[in-house]
Structure formats: C-alpha cells, structure tokens
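INFO batch 0412 | record 1 of 1 | parsing
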Amino acid sequence: MKVHWVMLITSIHIKIAGFTIKVLNAGGPKFRQKLRSTHHKPEIAHFEPEIFMQGTFDRDEQFRPHKDATLHYEDFEWQRPNRAQELYTRVCEVTEEREIDFDEFVATINDEINEVDMVLRRSRDETNGVPVIALVNTKEDQIAQCATNYTPSEIVYFRQLIEMMVMADDETYAVATMVALRLGQKMKPPIPQRDVQSLIDRLMDDGWVASSPDGSSYIMGTRAGLELQSYLRDQYNDMIKMCKVCMEMVTMGERCERQECPVRIHRHCADGLFNGNDMECPECKTAWTRLNTFGLGLPL
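INFO prediction complete | emitting tokens
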C-alpha cells in the first residue's frame, strides 16, 4: 500500500513510551522543524514510535536514532509516495525491532497523541485516489490551530477563501484566480494584490490550496481536506458533501443524475464501486452514467 506523508504543523510536546519529543512549527515544504532527543542503546525497544515521529519531521539534518546507527532522509515533501511506510520499515531495521502491521503502529501512536488533541489521519488524494496520512489537530477552530505560521490577517483571508470555495455555485468548490486576488482588497486592512499572490503561493506550497487543472481557479488542497474536515462540517453543515462510499468529505467526483438525490462519490471510490457491478445510484437506484461530475479539481 502506498502512503503519502503529509506536511505537519503544530507546536507541542508529545511523550511516547517514556520519551518526550517536541514538534516544532513547519515552515512550508522546506520543513524547517527539527526534533531533538537523546536515546541510549538499552532503551531501544521503547522508542520506536518516537523515532518514527522524529523521522517524519527532520528533513535537513542527519537522523541519529542511537549511537550505532545513522540514517539520512533526503526530501520529506508531503507529495512523495510510500514515505511514511518506508520510514517505519527503516526505523524497525535500525532499532532491530520486529516490524508489526503498519495500521497497528499508527494506532499505537494515536493512542499516545490523542491526549494532546492530535491524531494521525488517513485519507486519499481526491484528484488521484492515492492514500495520504497526516498529523491533524483535533481542537476547535482548526484553521487557527493548524495555520500557525500565518499572521492573523492571513488566516482571516484563508478563512474567507475557503468559505468562497464551499459556497461556490454548482458544487465547483473553486474560486477564480482573479476573484481570489481581489479578495485581499476586502480585508481590513486591505492586503495589496502582490502580497495576496505571495500568500496564495505559500498556501499552495503548504498544501492548503491547489490550482485547478486548467489553471483558472483555486481549489482546496489535500491538506485542507484532511486537517479541516471537522471544522468545515461544523461551520457549513449541508454545504459539505460526504462520499457515499468512504464517508469522507468530497469536493470533486461524481454525482447522481437525479438532481434531488444527495449522493456524491469520489472518482476513485466510484472506480471501485462500479467495477463489475451494476451502474446505479447506491441510494435511489437511478442509472449511473459516470458523466455527471462536480468540482473543478478533477483531472481534465
């Protein structure tokens, strides 16, 4: 199974298996955060989860789990496939520990970090169905909690941009590029257009916002769907659609031919659902053509 490791942002101390680690703020795709901790050979069997967490955060420097092993992890940009599972396998090799099921390992980490309102959440990239995994802040007001490397005015802009995407006509979940640029003028105080473009570029680099395939609009990035799903559901209720198959938020995919039917399905979920099965709506049984799509993020 391929797993993407999504960029993480938070600032907390996490204690796992008797060790305390500090997760510093991420600064975009260059992953400025670093972890520091000291481990000793007799305790190797106890710090496997922590080593995994450290490896996910440390991009630019050598990763030294203990005195007898040195690993170097090159890039840790969140788009890279299979990264989290690959890291886990290498941690087990370094610590000479038996590799357990990856799902069980993630569950072990979640048991420890839930008490600090964090969770490793797994989902799929809506554009291509590739699995992703991210460390998510589960506190209320998730935009403010997650986007800690943005100024208050930038967070206000981001909130309004996301709201415009959610409220867009015909479930496009998109905002035209020029509309997004002009939105800065409505802020108090106004944000100059050149600064708005710079902010959007940062939001894209950090995975919060993406460009539609034709470049005409901005859409929610994979990270926004992962980290802000609870916030968006609380804020916008029925405006947020849930995939009938996986029950995750869906902003692009296929919908029932009957206008009044609420069924929406990710394209990758539809691929699995209709593979060799009757092509009909799972709720109202209307014939499903796979041509009635929504969301501007779908590949052309």
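INFO post-check: The first strand starts at residue 4 and ends at 5.
INFO record closed
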